[in-house]
Specification:
globular; alpha+beta
Amino acid sequence: MGLFSRRAAAPLPAAADPNALELRALVQRGTSFSLDVDLKLPASGITALFGASGCGKTTLLRATAGLTRPRPGRIAIAGQLWQHDAAGVWLPTHRRALGMVFQEASLFAHLNVQQNLDYGRRRIAPQERRIAVEQAVELLGIGHLLARRPAQLSGGERQRVAIARALAASPRLLLMDEPLAALDEARKAELLPYFERLQRELALPILYVSHALDEVARLAQHIVLMEAGRVLASDAAGEVLTRLDLPLARLDAASAALLGEVAAVEREWGLLTVQLAGGGPLLHCLPGAGGLAGYAPGQRLRLRVAARDVAISLTPPEGSSALNVLPASVVQLRALDEALMLAALEVAGGVRLLARLTRRSTATLGLAEGQRVHALVKAVAVLG
């Protein structure tokens, strides 16, 4: 299901930041729950709203869309004012230049794919169209599906059509509420590369609600961590994911998000060598599901390394299968429970990794904050 704007909102006052999303909202539901946030977010890329069920993620999304009215509230989207109580500004949902995608695609069953897309396009005036239907079709890879009806599509295909329909209305903001939650693992894996392509090729901010940390670590450039209607942290994904004082570090899927670019395509071995951003080290990793085809030196990549896949050695190991042996320092140590510890490591270029290890291993190695060590990461454990 998509929600689309008919006309643009009023311009913001000069003091507002045209390069940011401003979300200030107070929503009270009885005495049991309140949402109280004041956020300034990037006006491009994917910002993930993450937290346990009931923390307020969907309420914040609904407030942004105008489906729930914060009192007081201020919603400013990259140069447009959608709500500003102090100035008496309130735009209803149908006047907000947004697209929304839910868990269920909710396509019109009596229309084929092309007709569903045309419905989205017709909801926006011709002079305000910035994304052509043909571009949305190409971005989501649905050209071969245009004559089919929703009943003839897989779950992943239906979601791709739903996203394309939202894009066809040329939104200034795309809202996604658990868009992969109704899909099995195979369909999720099918869809994730399309999300990555959207953020690479469209200058369009996306607010993405999820409770799956592996999704967030793969997709988000910025993470808003929420708990009980409040914001625990809002920062670049690499910063939020590796903070040991946040509950993310205690999750089994705890991982570090790394940015880099392809330094070499090792065709002899079927591997990639990636130069991490900021002067970070070289990292060997497997290519995505499609193999080495499509990779070239200089191509930017986003990688993930799970804490459970990082081992620590005091000296460079000999005869190890781990291709990535990275000199590092122990920045912080924290006990997870009676058996496990978590270490935050920093390698060259200020790149942060997490390592999960037993308390026994920590004691055997004599690990301490500030100590120089080596982080061992298998190439097969570096996920793109």
